[in-house]
């Protein structure tokens, strides 16, 4: 079960992804900003009611912020894509205790999927020699999301 604080952290991660503009994928910044705003609105709509046992949980998920401050711009895109994939996985699980609005959840997942697709295309286009730092970022994020799951 994900705590309310965990959901808020995910929302903050989503809102911080305007860093994508540094990837120089010219069509993404404006498009992503709109999708992110909509995603935050949907998260708010979905997350109004949390099960009592979730509210009592005190979980600390310290996000590995260094993955969003890499030496190479291309690594940021890989990190954000990885974050979105894990968030998509979390919200795709059968979370029966969460009393979320099903329509809002579907719309949120669709927006997330769209972001993943766009980022994959951009990251593939920008696929460069920084493979090792990209993999380090992926591994750090996988470790972080394993704690949440």
Task: Report on this structure.
α1 runs antiparallel to α2, α4 runs antiparallel to α5 and α4 runs parallel beside α6. The protein has one domain: Growth Hormone, Chain: A. It is globular. The longest helix is centred in the C-terminal third of the chain and has 24 residues. 66% of the residues lie in helices and 0% in strands. With 149 residues, the chain is an all-alpha fold. The chain is built from 6 helices and no strands. Belongs to the alpha/beta interferon family. GO terms for molecular function: cytokine activity; cytokine receptor binding. It comes from Tichodroma muraria. InterPro entries: 4_helix_cytokine-like_core (IPR009079), Interferon_alpha/beta/delta (IPR000471). Its main location: secreted.
Radius of gyration computed on alpha carbons: 15 Å
Low-confidence stretches: 18-23
Q: How much is the average pLDDT?
A: 69
Tally of domains:
1
CATH fold-level assignment = Growth Hormone, Chain: A
Strand content: under 5%
What gap, in angstroms, lies between the N and C termini? 8 Å
The SS-based structural class is: mainly alpha
Order of helices and strands: HHHHHH
GO molecular function, one term: cytokine activity
GO biological process, one term: defense response to virus
Function: Has antiviral activities.
Protein name: IFNW1 protein
How would you summarize this macromolecular structure in one to three sentences?
This protein is mainly alpha-helical. It has six helices and no strands. α2 packs antiparallel against α5 and α4 runs parallel beside α6.
């Amino acid at each position: 079960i994900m705590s309310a604080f965990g959901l808020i952290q995910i929302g903050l991660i989503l809102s911080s992804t305007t860093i994508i503009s540094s990837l120089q994928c010219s069509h993404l910044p404006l498009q992503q900003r709109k999708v992110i705003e909509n995603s935050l609105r949907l998260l708010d709509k979905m997350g109004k009611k949390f099960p009592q046992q979730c509210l009592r949980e005190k979980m600390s998920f310290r996000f590995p912020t260094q993955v969003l401050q890499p030496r190479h711009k291309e690594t940021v895109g890989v990190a954000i894509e990885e974050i979105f994939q894990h968030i998509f996985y979390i919200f795709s699980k059968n979370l029966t205790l969460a009393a979320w609005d099903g329509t809002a959840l579907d719309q949120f997942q669709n927006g997330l999927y769209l972001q993943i697709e766009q980022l994959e295309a951009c990251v593939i286009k920008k696929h460069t020699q920084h493979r090792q730092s990209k993999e380090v970022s992926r591994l750090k994020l996988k470790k972080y999301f394993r704690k949440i799951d």
